[in-house]
Amino acid sequence: MNFAQTVLLPVDMQQAFDGPSWPHRWNGAVDRNGRAILGAWRSRGLPIIHVKHDSIESGSTLAPGQPGNAFRPGFEPHDGEPVVSKSVNSAFIGTDLDLRLKRLGVRKVVVFGITTDMCVSTTVRTGANLGYKMILVEDACDCFDLPDGAGGTIPAHISHQAHVATLRFEFAKVVKTREIVETLTAPRAVAAALGSPPPSWRQLLQSGRL
Q: What is the pTM of this model?
């Protein structure tokens, strides 16, 4: 996998989604996988833009000033990592995300976060329609049980699978956390085994290996 001209976009990794007012979630590994991706990405000095939902709905646990608005532990932006604030599902609507990506020369966007069927899916769809190559990390996403409108409930993992299938078919390349992390860390592991210093991401870009 080639990460040249690529940005990482964690979407809505916020504490509200652990609150009692939210339904059951399915992916107990979402935080572990997301932190693994962030760690590998940062180790190569690649660009990250965090997306945060600042709800304008009255009483929302995602509203600014509410405890749930804060980033989940391990997902706080580091110095120099910008945050895009949104109030709708797509991170491209009502924000300067598209402008930021153009200024960075970005052509590919790697996305993970919460929730698969809402803000993640809408962001991926919009990005694809704007001409970006979208890459979804499916096992670093999560979603909730969903009322079906007829008195029943669609289990979270079923909703997740359906949305991932749709995104894969039309809007994005779908990968797993392991693929991202192994691709980003392999050159360093090889260099360590050979007793030589690992190449920088700039060197890898220049050589065409990234």
A: 0.87
